[in-house]
UniProtKB/TrEMBL annotation:
It comes from Limnothrix redekei LRLZ20PSL1. GO terms for molecular function: ribose-5-phosphate isomerase activity. CDD domains: RPI_A. PANTHER family: RIBOSE-5-PHOSPHATE ISOMERASE. The keyword Isomerase applies. NCBIfam families: PRK00702.1, rpiA. This is Ribose-5-phosphate isomerase A. Pathway: Carbohydrate degradation; pentose phosphate pathway; D-ribose 5-phosphate from D-ribulose 5-phosphate (non-oxidative stage): step 1/1. Keywords: Isomerase. It is an enzyme of class 5 (isomerase). Its EC number is 5.3.1.6. Homodimer. Belongs to the ribose 5-phosphate isomerase family.
Amino acid sequence: MSQLDPATIMKQQVARAAVARVKSGTVVGLGSGSTAAFAIEYLGDRLKSGELTDIIGVPTSFQSEVLAKQFGIPLATPNDVDRIDVAIDGADEVDPQKNLIKGGGAAHTREKIVDCLAAEFIVVVDASKLVDRLGTTFLLPVEVLPMALEPVKRAIVALGGEPQLRMAVKKAGPVVTDQGNLVLDVKFPNGIDDPATLEKALNNIPGVLENGLFVGTTDCVLIGEIVDGEPQVRQM
Ligand SMILES: O=C(CO)[C@H](O)[C@H](O)COP(=O)(O)O
């Protein structure tokens, strides 16, 4: 009997299913977060065993870069490659249209660059991430340049949001992103009505670098769940 908790088992199953779709000779976007971390590990395993050859990984964060190096995946930046064939990444919320909230790991800016460049963007989640309406279980992350923090907060309030500065754990002060910026986690009291309009409106505020709404970018969602005590993966 496995010692792992069901959430970890689901993450592993879904990461394995996504990595099974990767083909030799491709450029792979490497997502961030705990589910994507399993995908990076399994991609490294397939490379090491010789089952896959000629893979280049494009990391979406310092976390995924470190993991990819640890698991022997050759790396490049978006500037080094002429295409990304497939990206595998997690999400914090997924709606029925496959729109996402991402940025629980404060990596959404680089994630959006890499995931949007990919010819195929595969999202890997467990069933707890599925929602009818975005913004109902998770606050929307917005990356902000530090010198614009207060004006950006006021502009977000004018859009109906309630921003709070993300604070670090095991470090005094706020979370600082891989780009040296801050993160506002924004509550929309009734959830998000129109993700496409809000995504653009937030990014139009001077001082906002990127927000965690991913609208119309997902090709496929792989969902890990436990059915009758058995871990399963289904596709949306
Ligand atoms: O967007 C992300 C990081 O910025 C992650 O993909 C998202 O937070 C999901 O993480 P996990 O798989 O650990 O639940």
